[in-house]
């Protein structure tokens, strides 16, 4: 999946549980600082992405994500890994 599509999906997910406006959420937005997402919000985001993308995001993997771009890259890595495993 392309980065832009993943970003838009992340933004849509955040808008469901956050009072932020669409224009507040940018690719380089810091999850804690710029968007004020606490650990519960971050977990809700991860659970929503797992459901929408049919992937599993281990806690230790999303813990290092500081920005929206980090989350996009993590999703891409997991999708690539799942594709490699499906080919085997």
Structural features, described:
This protein has 88 residues and is an all-alpha fold. The protein has one domain (3-87): Non-ribosomal Peptide Synthetase Peptidyl Carrier Protein, Chain A. It is 61% helix and 0% strand. It is built from four helices and no strands. The chain has helices at residues 3-17, 39-53, 59-62, 68-87. The longest helix has 20 residues, at 68-87.
What is the compact description of this entry?
The chain is mainly α and 88 residues long. 61% of the residues lie in helices and 0% in strands. The radius of gyration is 13 Å and the shape is globular.
Structural class: mainly alpha
What is the fourth-level CATH superfamily? ACP-like
pLDDT average, as an integer?
Answer: 93
> What is the CA-based Rg, rounded?
13 Å
> What percent of the residues sit in helical stretches (DSSP H or I)?
55-70%
Major sheet: size, sense and barrel closure?
Answer: none
Low-confidence stretches: none
Distance between the termini: 20 Å
Provide the CATH top-level class: Mainly Alpha
The general outline is globular
User: What's the architecture, going by CATH?
Assistant: Orthogonal Bundle
Protein name: Acyl carrier protein
Organism: Priestia megaterium (strain DSM 319 / IMG 1521) (Bacillus megaterium)
């Amino acid at each position: 999946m392309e980065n832009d599509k993943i970003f838009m999906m992340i933004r849509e997910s955040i808008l469901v549980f956050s009072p932020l406006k669409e224009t507040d959420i940018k690719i380089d937005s810091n999850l804690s600082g710029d968007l004020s997402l606490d650990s519960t919000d971050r977990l809700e985001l991860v659970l929503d992405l797992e459901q929408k993308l049919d992937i599993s995001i281990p806690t230790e993997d999303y813990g290092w994500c500081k920005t929206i771009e980090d989350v996009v890259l993590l999703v891409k890595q997991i999708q690539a890994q799942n594709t490699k495993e499906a080919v085997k």
